[in-house]
Structure formats: structure tokens, C-alpha cells
């Protein structure tokens, strides 16, 4: 029997076609504008560094919300991961920092579970409280811990886990990329970003994505977790310990957010700074929503934000070139809507495509303020486009009390 697809979810062949079309458009824009940063290995490496903390935070949110617990406190758990990861790294090295950072995030998740699952406090109120508590607590602890060493809340330089290149492949791809051939060099640059100067911690985080997909969608335990998020009373009637599964899911949620925090202080940079997360916990939550509470979708959302975040660090020329790419993609969307006879959407897409095309043709760069805001603007636009096909777990955010369903 063919497996049913959720409403609004594109088929696998359609996803592959969209990826191929996006790569061709990106390669064409790179060739036309001569903006080699669009597909360079350095750009892709920067994208990975920006995307991984968001992906880990979103993955933590997936665990929590699939069990029925809304986790607005992801930002706070990410903050706890940055501080305790830096603290452990400073004292005992990077592997210890990885463990202490995940424990710090898990403690935040445990607190959220106690307040929401056991005491039935509103999930949003609890999450906001954890964000505020984590921000103030780590600010105090950072001053207490690092002030005598460096005279501020900033940590001393930290150790990082090893980085590696894939022997032979990295050099060969770099050679292909340097030729700037259409599509071939673009693919070489993109793949090269994944196999050049890759941190061991990046591999661990990628493994967490695969492991989560397998556990949540391919094991009996994952089925029980998802049943708690869809209908906890039905799960209870089948003998599932709903409280236990919610606790496990929310604690794992905090640990994964903590892992994202460790990545920020040991890979994205090599120090801890107060306010270092910059709201990426909330972006992780946005990536989770964009991904329709699925691993593949949230990974794509994190990658999109990471790409634009990395691109804006390369200057206004790269962002200006992206305007042409956006115009072409909007034109493609308009054609697809025309084929579906969705006239209003097609007209709106055509008008937007014309606006971006004219903007690109009549300017040489974009304002600095817009460059820095590009990742956040892209996130809002994508969420607005994706909002029509979202389906959150049915019992997400609802208070559960054992026996009340009878």
C-alpha cells in the first residue's frame, strides 16, 4: 500500500526537482553577476557554522513539541549551553565542554518539564520565564567566573574539537571551483564546503538529526512520544506513561539546544560572550515551524537562514546579486501557479518578481541596514509562504492530567 502524504507536503520527486532548479538558478546568477561568493566553499562553510546552532535548537523543539509541550524556552536553553559549554571547555577541554553544555541545556529542559508537565503552568509563560532566568543567571555566573581572568564577562580563548578535510576530495573540488565553470564549479564549491575544514562537532550534530528522525519516526518509543503530542488520553488508555515520555522528550530538547550552544562557543567562535546567541533560539523555533515539525524541513529552514546569515557577512555585493536570484525564483513560482490556474497568486508573484528585477537593475548595492537584516527578512518571508501547509501536533501546548480523559 502506498504511504499517504500529509496535505501540502510535496512529493520526493518534486523536492528533488526544486533542489535542482534552485541550484541551476543560483549557478546562473553567480555566472551573470560574477559574484563567486554565492556558491563558494567558504560561503557554504560559513552557512554550516551559522545553521548548526539553529538546527540543533529546532531539533530540540521538535522533541518537545512532538510530545505536546511547547518550548518557547529554547533560547534560554541555548544560552545555558553556551555558558556551561565554555565553562567545561575552559576547565577540562572540548569534550568535557560538550558534556557540560548539554547538561546545562538539559537542566533548563528539566525545569521546563517540571513546571509545565507536573504543575500544569502555561507552556509559553514557563518558556519566557526560563529565557529570562537563563539570561540573568549566565550573566551573573559569567561575571563571577571569568571576570578575574579577563576582566569582563567574556571567557578566555577556548579549545575546539578537531577539524578535518576529506583526503584528496577537498583539494580536487577546490581545483574545480577555481575554474568558475557553470554549474560544475558551483557544485564543487557547495560540496567542498561540506568536506573542507569540517569540525568533528558538526558531524556529531548531523548524526543527531539522523538519529532523531530514526527514533521519532521508526521506533516504538518515538511512536509513543508522538502519541503524547497528538492525543495523550488515547495514549494513556493504551498503557503509555505520558508523564515519563513528556519528561524525557523535554529534557532531550534542552540537551540538544545546549549542544547548539556548545557549537557556538567552540566552532562558530572560540570564546563565550554575554548575549552571544543573538536570538537564534527563536530562529530555531521558526525553522521548526517552517519545517512542519519534521527533521528534513527544519534542517532546510536552518540552512536557509544560515546561508543568508553567512552571505550578509560577505558584503552588500553578494546580497545585491541575490536580488536577481529571488526575482527568477518568484518568476518560477508565478509560472507554476499559472499552470495551476491560481490567478491571484500568479499575479502577486509576477509583480514581486518585477520589483526585485527592477531593484537589481537600477542599483549597484543594497543599504547596509538591509544587508544585516537579510537573514531575518528571509525567515519572515519563508514563514509567511509556508504558513498555509502547517500542521502542528494536535495536543501541543495543552495541559495533561492523568485520568481526566475518562
CATH architecture label name of the domain at 36-291: Orthogonal Bundle
Helix content, binned percent: over 70%
List unreliable stretches of 5+ residues: none
Counted beta strands: 2
Query: What is the element string, with H for helices and E for strands?
Result: HHHHHEHHEHHHHHHHHH
Let me know the average pLDDT: 88
CATH topology of the domain at 36-291: ABC transporter involved in vitamin B12 uptake, BtuC
- Strand order within the widest beta sheet: 1-2
- Provide a count of the helices: 16
The span between the termini is 35 Å
Subcellular location: Cell membrane
Transmembrane segments: 41-62, 69-88, 94-121, 128-149, 169-191, 198-217, 247-269, 281-307, 319-339, 346-362, 368-386
InterPro entries: ABC_transp_permease
Membrane topology: Multi-pass membrane protein
Give a nutshell description of this structure.
The chain has 406 residues and is mainly α. It has 16 helices and two strands.
Structure description:
The model has no long low-confidence stretch (mean pLDDT 88). α2 packs across α7. The protein is mainly alpha-helical. It is built from 16 helices and two strands. The chain is globular. Helix content is 73%, strand content 1%. The chain has a domain of 256 residues: Orthogonal Bundle (ABC transporter involved in vitamin B12 uptake, BtuC). The chain has a two-stranded antiparallel sheet.
Characteristics:
single chain, 406 residues, mainly alpha, ABC transporter involved in vitamin B12 uptake, BtuC, two-stranded antiparallel ribbon, 16 helices, 73% helix, globular, transmembrane helix, transmembrane
Amino acid at each position: 500500500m502506498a504511504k499517504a502524504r500529509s496535505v501540502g507536503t510535496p512529493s520526493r520527486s518534486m523536492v528533488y526537482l526544486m533542489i535542482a532548479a534552485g541550484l541551476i538558478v543560483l549557478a546562473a546568477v553567480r555566472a551573470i553577476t560574477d559574484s563567486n561568493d554565492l556558491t563558494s566553499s567558504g560561503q557554504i562553510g560559513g552557512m554550516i557554522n551559522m545553521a548548526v546552532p539553529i538546527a540543533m535548537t529546532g531539533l530540540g523543539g521538535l522533541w518537545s513539541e512532538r510530545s505536546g509541550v511547547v518550548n518557547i524556552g529554547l533560547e534560554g536553553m541555548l544560552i545555558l549551553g553556551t555558558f556551561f559549554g565554555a565553562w567545561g571547555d575552559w576547565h577540562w577541554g572540548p569534550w568535557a565542554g560538550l558534556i557540560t553544555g548539554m547538561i546545562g541545556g538539559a537542566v533548563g529542559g528539566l525545569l521546563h518539564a517540571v513546571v509545565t508537565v507536573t504543575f500544569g503552568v502555561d507552556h509559553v509563560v514557563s518558556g519566557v520565564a526560563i529565557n529570562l532566568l537563563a539570561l540573568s543567571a549566565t550573566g551573573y555566573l559569567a561575571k563571577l567566573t571569568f571576570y578575574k581572568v579577563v576582566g569582563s564577562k567574556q571567557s578566555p580563548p577556548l579549545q575546539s574539537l578537531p577539524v578535518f578535510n576529506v583526503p584528496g576530495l577537498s583539494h580536487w573540488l577546490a581545483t574545480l571551483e577555481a575554474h568558475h565553470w557553470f554549474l560544475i564549479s558551483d557544485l564543487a564549491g557547495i560540496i567542498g564546503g561540506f568536506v573542507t575544514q569540517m569540525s568533528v562537532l558538526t558531524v556529531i550534530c548531523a548524526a543527531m538529526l539522523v538519529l532523531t528522525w530514526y527514533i521519532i519516526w521508526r521506533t516504538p518509543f518515538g511512536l509513543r512520544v508522538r502519541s503524547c503530542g497528538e492525543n495523550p488520553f488515547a495514549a494513556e488508555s493504551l498503557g503509555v506513561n505520558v508523564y515519563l515520555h513528556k519528561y524525557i522528550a523535554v529534557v532531550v530538547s534542552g540537551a540538544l539546544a545546549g549542544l547548539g550552544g556548545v557549537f557556538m562557543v567552540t566552532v562558530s567562535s572560540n570564546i563565550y560572550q554575554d548575549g552571544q546567541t543573538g536570538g537564534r533560539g527563536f530562529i530555531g523555533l521558526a525553522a521548526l515551524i517552517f519545517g512542519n515539525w519534521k527533521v528534513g524541513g527544519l534542517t532546510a529552514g536552518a540552512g536557509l537562514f544560515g546561508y543568508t546569515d553567512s552571505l550578509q557577512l560577505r558584503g552588500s555585493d553578494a546580497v545585491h546579486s541575490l536580488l536577481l536570484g529571488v526575482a527568477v525564483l518568484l518568476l518560477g513560482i508565478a509560472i507554476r501557479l499559472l499552470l495551476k490556474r491560481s490567478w491571484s497568486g500568479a499575479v502577486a508573484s509576477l509583480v514581486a518578481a518585477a520589483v526585485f528585477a527592477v531593484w537589481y537593475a537600477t542599483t549597484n548595492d543594497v543599504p547596509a541596514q538591509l544587508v544585516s537584516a537579510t537573514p531575518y527578512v528571509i525567515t519572515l518571508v519563508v514563514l509567511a509562504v509556508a504558513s498555509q501547509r502547517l500542521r502542528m501536533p494536535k495536543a501541543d501546548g495543552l495541559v495533561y492530567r492523568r485520568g481526566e480523559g475518562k
